[in-house]
Amino acid sequence: MFQLIGASSERKGGEMLISDKMVAAINKQIGNEFGAFLQYVAIAAYFGNESLPELAKHFNQQAMEERQHAMKFVNYVLDAGGLPEIPAIPAPKSRFSSAEEAVKLSLDWEITVTKQINDLVDLAGKENDHTSHTFLQWFVNEQLEEVSSMDMLLKMVKRAGTNLLFVEDYLARRGTRPAAAAEAT
Ligand SMILES: [Fe+2]
Ligand SMILES: [Fe+2]
């Protein structure tokens, strides 16, 4: 059994299951997930502006997944008795010179998020916080999927070159990925 950690000074009553340090680290990650949400909306808008509706749809779906990730963290902090605090979100990048640049940015982002999740898992381990450690495993698995599907899309875009209708066709035939569809409900 884990020990209850003393309530933070900002919390009125009740006990927190996780440390102030973990709450602060998760609050930062809530900002990163909302940052990803905004970045993917911006990329979807770029593709919409380029008249590539399937790529736009794909990135809007990715954006909604990022919003769900942020909300998962918000609800976790609440369940654990802490106060979720949403940090300022930097403006996303909106202008790209090519589809490849936009998808490469997304892949780099997913790799960065994977490191951020690993750091949270490390922190949970250091704090002997089994509650957070178990909660974070969902994100560890999710990042494997996110990195591998974005890497696949980048390869498709590179192979297509200037003929992005090839990618549009691929996305249209593939449809919404089952995991995303299930989560959206
Ligand atoms: Fe995410
Ligand atoms: Fe992601």
Which helices and strands appear, and what pairs or packs with what?
Layout: H1 20-49, H2 53-79, H3 99-126, H4 130-160, H5 165-174, H6 178-184
Q: Can you give the mean pLDDT?
A: 91
* Low-confidence runs of at least 5 consecutive residues: 178-182
CA distance, first residue to last residue:
34 Å
The unique ligands bound to this protein are: fe (ii) ion
- What structural category characterises the helix and strand content? mainly alpha
What is the H/E string?
HHHHHH
Count up the helices. Answer: 6
Q: Do you know the CATH topology?
A: Ferritin
- The proportion of strand residues reads under 5%
Question: How many domain modules?
Answer: 1
How would you describe this structure to a colleague?
The protein is mostly helical and 185 residues long. It has one domain (20-184): Ferritin. It contains six helices and no strands. The longest helix has 31 residues, at 130-160. The structure holds fe (ii) ion (2 copies).
Features:
single chain; 185 residues; mainly alpha; Ferritin; 72% helix; binds fe (ii) ion
